[in-house]
Amino acid sequence: MARPKKTETENQEEIKTVSPNDLEWTDYVLDLLSEDEKISGNPTTDGLRRIFEKALNCTLLESRSDVVQSPSIDNEKRATVVHTLVYILNDSSLDTEFKTRATSGSADVYWGNCDKIYRNHPVAVAETRAEGRALRRALKLRKVVAAEELAKEIEDHPDHDSINKITNNQINFIDVLSKRLDINPLKLLESLAIVSKNVYDISYDDAAKTITALSEYQQSHNIPQSVKGYDTNWK
């Protein structure tokens, strides 16, 4: 006997929808990006901007940047930018007053956290990073960093002996990976018997040892509770 055809309603019920509260949400959003919108697996701000309205089923009303700190000699040529997104959800089940949302992201950029090639354009870099963070926050992406937030060729601290001491490249890598894994860098250093009152006084070899430990935790996912709890003020 032939099976009765399913109604359109039954077919729709079988289609799994993914919402921002689901564990698979981040993977769903990243799958909307093309390969050239990712760098080493990290989404670009351009890519997140392209898929933003589609992923959230919304209409973007405003996307603006506000420079809250301009580069000067007194602040080490540091630029701070806040980017704000205002959008309305295209969800008929919501009351009008709950459809409009606003999300902001901020970034500050100076010679110590910016690629050498872009260090003379801190406002532009900060604007891109701030927008990327706003997009990530609005999209509710978990453990994801926009490609523009990472730097590869950072100029070393002026007071550093780059041969014997930790470099800004190493500090940046430790910070990014610690944040991603929810690890407190200071607790990690203590667990590795690396003692220093100032992170900039840590030796190059000890920094390499710390990075190795972080990489191992990233692969094994076996992170001791004693080093958990990322702290933004560890430096």
> What share of the residues does DSSP label as strand, in percent?
15-25%
Strand order of the largest sheet: 3-4-5
Structural class: alpha+beta
Strand segment tally = 5
The ordered string of helix (H) and strand (E) elements is: HHEEHEEHEHHHH
* CATH arch. level architecture of the largest domain: 2-Layer Sandwich
Write the layout of secondary structure elements.
Blueprint: H1 8-14, H2 25-31, E1 38-39, E2 42-43, H3 45-56, E3 58-69, E4 79-89, H4 96-99, E5 100-109, H5 122-139, H6 168-181, H7 185-191, H8 204-220
Antiparallel strand pairs: 1-2, 3-4, 4-5
Walk me through this protein's architecture:
24% of the residues are buried. This protein is of the alpha+beta class and 235 residues long. α3 packs parallel to α5 and α6 (168-181) runs parallel beside α8 (204-220). The N and C termini lie far apart (72 Å). It has helices spanning 8-14, 25-31, 45-56, 96-99, 122-139, 168-181, 185-191, 204-220; strands at 38-39, 42-43, 58-69, 79-89, 100-109. It has two domains: 19-152, Double Stranded RNA Binding Domain (2-Layer Sandwich); 156-235, no CATH class. The strands form two sheets. The chain has a three-stranded antiparallel beta sheet with strand order 3-4-5. A two-stranded antiparallel sheet has the order 1-2. The radius of gyration is 22 Å and the shape is globular. Mean pLDDT is 86; it is low at 8-15 and 159-163.
